[in-house]
Amino acid sequence: MKYIIFCTFLFLFFGHAQQSGPFQDEVISIQKKYDRLWDPSKTTFVFTGSSSIRMWTNINDAFPEYQVINSGFGGSKSSDLLLYTNELILKYKPKKVFIYEGDNDIVAKVQTKDILKNTRAIIDRIKANDPKTEIILISAKPSIARWRQRNKYKKLNRGFEQLSKRDYTIRYANVWDAMLNKNKVRRDIFLRDGLHMNSKGYDLWLSVIMEHVK
User: Fold this and answer.
1) Checking DSSP bridges between strand 96-100 and strand 67-70, what pairing results, if any?
2) CB-based contact 69:92 (threshold 8 Å)
3) Which of 65, 115, 140, 206 is least enclosed, having the fewest CB within 10 Å?
């Protein structure tokens, strides 16, 4: 009996420990919000990733016929989304998952191969949970603030595009090209920080993403 109790304690302890990590407070806050709002009877879209998703505050208005979960948070990297795949994606049983990751990874000097490895692992977890879930990989975006690293972004986007060819339910949303004008990043679609987008920027994103919704 003592052995069983001890093993149960270890299971609970390490099970909890696996869920702890960076950004735990942000993830808990997202869960609390949608635990109140999420209706499991409705068709759900999950948008997740870093601050470019989090700051898309009117995303619900773009998809009035669906229930939209915005589980993005600032500073998120692909490794963070992999750690919290269950909390930020799977628990909402989504029909479609839109993922924006890699932007912060590049700034943090994460290698392209590691970003793609994390992304493949995220996809595999989603598919293991429900093979019919559609996944849209949103390309890393160009920005004024990070334009010097554009070649790394382009390399990553080529990797995302290749990943989208693994399965007909995985798609690649190329927002990169839509945000350029004659091979230069548009300046009228960003906030003052040169990194995050204004409403014009999100309108461009929506025009690309809608092609993967219809």
Assistant:
1) unpaired
2) yes
3) 65
